[in-house]
Write a structure and sequence with these properties.
The protein is an alpha/beta fold and 334 residues long. It is built from 13 helices and 11 strands. It folds into 2 domains: 132 residues, Rossmann fold (3-Layer(aba) Sandwich); 178 residues, Rossmann fold, CATH 3.40.50. The longest helix is centred in the N-terminal third of the chain and has 11 residues.
Amino acid sequence: MKILIIRFSSIGDIVLTTPVVRVVKTQFPEAEVHYLTKEKYRGILAPNPYVDKLITLQDSLMDLIAHLRKERYDYVIDLHHNLRTFIIKIALQAQSFSFDKLNWQKWLLVNLKINKLPNVHIVDRYLASVAPLGIKADNLGLDYFIPDDDKVPMAWLPETHQKGFVAYAIGAQHGTKRLPLKRMIELCDKINKPIVLLGGPEDAARGHELEAFFNHTSEHEYEKGLLELNKKTVVYNACGKFNLNQSASLIKQAQYVFTHDTGLMHIAAAFKKEIFSIWGNTLPEFGMYPYRTRFTVLENRKAECRPCSKIGFAQCPKGHFKCMNEMVFDFYLP
């Protein structure tokens, strides 16, 4: 028996499909489980022991379909559910299972602020889509596997961080999912511990500004005052210095993880880290909050314009960005 699972993007969404991959393989151990995604996400799935074959979309959808037809799949599990996956399912003519994206319910919440979404995490909706196969959830959470070559030793970090640190994933695909720099400074100050900033090359400049704000390379009179005030925030900017799997390795070693609504949040959940999840224009009610791990939601529930999008914008469409600018950082770290 051959089973094809499809999810083309993105980092977090792919990580959220890993329980489906695991339960399909463990409950049908004789089956070949193939996974179809985009080439740039290969590294997320290549180390996964529950994936027997990884197939990636290159340039031509028709070439991909020709290749997939040769596999003669018995079942297709569509966890992306868009026009491209519809074309693939029609071409393969195998029995298929698709999850409901709940688009009209999301439209109601974004546009009319009417919440008709079920109180069900998207992972559980993914798992419900394969229930007709007799597959049951195992309640083991998300998976993320780090190749040995990408495991980051603590010795690679500054000496100030080698006895423990907090990870802060400062990036996000859209600007309205990301705290402004001033608020990032306030958050880091309240964390009051050594912090490793995580993100891609596009986050490096912002990370440098945070690092420069908190770090001092020479002795000044105010250093004594900082110590008297119990100020312990020291920032190491790792944005753009590590690949995704290496960033995951740092998350795995962190004491706590602060993150915007982004892929690294779900990687942290896979490692059962305690997460402080920061929400701007989107809502946890969309069903993509940290899965099966301890977490605290940081959000501004008084911003009546939330959610303004189910995804996000480059800038606040109303100009005030109250969802982030007026958020209260209500948390405590021992």
